[in-house]
């Protein structure tokens, strides 16, 4: 679709930042497994972390479409930074904006909107995974405080210097799951060491443990017993955001491959002149283009207040597959160079597989799409 002036200028500003600030240095952060805190803070200053949040708390209230534009531009050069933004906004800050009390919104949203803090959403457990409703973490009320015990795994943004809040799901009674906000440094909260990941190595992903962790009763996020329902509602938006991120990765692989194929010569001519390579590039463009159409359509439906759950699943399914396929083809086009970690396509190859797993596996997306068809 055609972007209006405001959307065009916002996307261009994020693209310029990604090209000039992220791209030249991200390879080093990736190899070291280091979180690029200064880059994330600068994205906050650009308004990326507050783009969906209400204006009264310092955000710009622009909606999911504008967030998707930013995520696509960032992911063209690096998925680690993009997923840092995506996880904090769609599952964290948006949860506070939608379900938090007035006091909670006033307490936490201004810093988040300004890009001074990040949120981690602690849902997945060692025995859960795709069965996210299988929550064993427990919380009980005692003397006006929630006492939390349990463990979470694969939690994005849990242990950075910018982490302001960890929102955890926990059983708060028989058959009920609730969301409870826990601030870093709370006694009984332990954030484990950074995982050694295959990809997304410049993002922060850790286990989180609660051992008689006590927080005020007022830290309940949303209605008691509605925590899992809240997560499912947020997850639809998260899937659209992941689809935008995946589209950016697919487009980045295409951009790098076109440039390389025009420069790299074999048998006396650029490899782009070989039909096999040219057709591969054409297929890569097709995947990126259709992925963009899918996530933008779902985002526009979401921003208009229309049902979009099946559209989000479709976008996430298609874009994640497109990213994996484009990364594979880009690595093939780059040949031996594509197997070297200093090249962006090698990092993309390592990053993209998780897109078919996170925010609901692609098998789950197919279930959602099938149900929308009445089967």
UniProtKB/TrEMBL annotation:
PROSITE patterns: ACYL_COA_DH_2. InterPro entries: Acyl-CoA_DH_CS (IPR006089), Acyl-CoA_Oxase/DH_mid-dom (IPR006091), Acyl-CoA_Oxase/DH_mid-dom_sf (IPR046373), AcylCo_DH-like_C (IPR036250), AcylCo_DH/oxidase_C (IPR009075), AcylCoA_DH/ox_N (IPR013786), AcylCoA_DH/ox_N_sf (IPR037069), AcylCoA_DH/oxidase_NM_dom_sf (IPR009100). The keyword Manganese does not apply. Signal peptide: none annotated. Residues 120-213 form the Acyl-CoA oxidase/dehydrogenase middle domain. Keywords: FAD, Flavoprotein, Oxidoreductase. GO terms for molecular function: acyl-CoA dehydrogenase activity; flavin adenine dinucleotide binding. Residues 6-116 form the Acyl-CoA dehydrogenase/oxidase N-terminal domain. This is Acyl-CoA dehydrogenase. It comes from Glycomyces harbinensis.
């Amino acid at each position: 679709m055609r972007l209006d002036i405001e959307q065009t200028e916002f996307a261009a500003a994020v693209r310029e930042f990604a090209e000039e600030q992220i791209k030249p240095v991200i390879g080093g952060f990736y190899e070291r497994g280091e979180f690029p805190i200064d880059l994330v803070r600068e994205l906050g200053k650009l308004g990326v972390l507050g783009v969906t949040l209400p204006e009264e708390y310092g955000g710009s209230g622009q909606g999911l479409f504008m967030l998707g534009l930013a995520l696509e531009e960032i992911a063209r050069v690096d998925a680690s930074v993009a997923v840092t933004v995506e996880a904090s906004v769609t599952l964290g800050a948006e949860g506070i904006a939608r379900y938090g009390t007035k006091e909670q919104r006033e307490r936490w949203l201004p810093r988040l909107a300004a890009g001074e803090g990040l949120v981690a959403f602690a849902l997945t457990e060692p025995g859960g995974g795709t069965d996210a409703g299988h929550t064993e973490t427990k919380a009980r009320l005692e003397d006006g405080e929630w006492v939390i015990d349990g463990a979470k795994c694969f939690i994005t943004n849990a242990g950075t210097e910018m982490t302001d809040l960890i929102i955890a799901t926990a059983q708060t009674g028989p058959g009920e799951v609730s969301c409870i906000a826990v601030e870093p440094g709370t006694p009984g909260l332990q954030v484990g060491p950074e995982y050694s990941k295959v990809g997304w190595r410049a993002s922060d992903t850790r286990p989180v443990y609660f051992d008689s962790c006590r927080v005020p009763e007022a830290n309940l996020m949303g209605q008691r017993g509605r925590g899992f329902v809240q997560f499912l509602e947020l997850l639809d938006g998260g899937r659209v955001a992941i689809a935008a991120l995946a589209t950016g990765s697919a487009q980045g692989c295409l951009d790098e491959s076109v440039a390389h194929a025009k420069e790299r010569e074999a048998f006396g001519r650029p490899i782009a002149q070989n039909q096999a390579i040219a057709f591969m590039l054409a297929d890569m463009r097709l995947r990126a283009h259709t992925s963009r159409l899918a996530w933008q359509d779902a985002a526009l439906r979401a921003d208009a207040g229309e049902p979009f759950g099946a559209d989000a699943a479709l976008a996430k399914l298609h874009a994640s597959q497109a990213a994996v396929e484009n990364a594979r083809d880009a690595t093939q086009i780059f040949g031996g160079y594509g197997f070297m970690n200093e090249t962006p396509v090698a990092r993309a190859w390592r990053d993209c597989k998780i897109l078919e797993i996170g925010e609901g596996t692609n098998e789950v997306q197919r279930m959602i799409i099938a149900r929308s068809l009445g089967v």
